[in-house]
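quick one, 211 residues, struct below
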Amino acid sequence: MLTLVPDAIEAYARQNTMSETSVMQALREATYEETELPQMLSGPLVGQTLRMLCRLTGGGLAVEVGTFTGYASLWIAGGLASDGRLVTLDISEPSTQIAQRHWNQDPNGDKITLKLGPASDSIKSIDGAIDFAFIDADKAGYIEYYELIMERMRPGGVIVADNVLWSGRVLTPSEPSDHALVAYAKHVAADSRSEHVMLTLRDGLLVSMKK
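---
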């Protein structure tokens, strides 16, 4: 993964950011021990960013597309209102079993509902206006997920898409995933329904707020 800032600066930023909980730390360690692609895990800086953005929207209903081992899910759940809920979507039973095991140990775990199956179908089944969404799944599906969520999102709601810098490969795209992320950025930029900003945090976050 492309390092956008020196390691010392990254460490300093983490030292001055809200720390992960003991459950989050255990989940992160389990991800590295039990999965083949632990680098898919969102780090603490991204996690706290998601938590704060979710809280700023009011944190009533949040949707996460791409659960993996549920690390980002716990951060988002921490930003929910007392009666808020997170619906997280994935297709992998093994990785989400790791997630569920750790959610059960966290005070915010009962706010999280996992739906296994194609994300496009699951999004369509969600009731209520969405306040916050995090997209971190198959890159070819980003535009479809964005559109389905935007249709169900209240004004002022926020969509965050991960990996939009894709280790710098978006600058010289060659693989289908590269082109998919470039297409997603262009799609969001052309959408008059939202305001947006691309952040050079970790592997890139594209934040869109519905007008």
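The chain has a mean pLDDT of 96.
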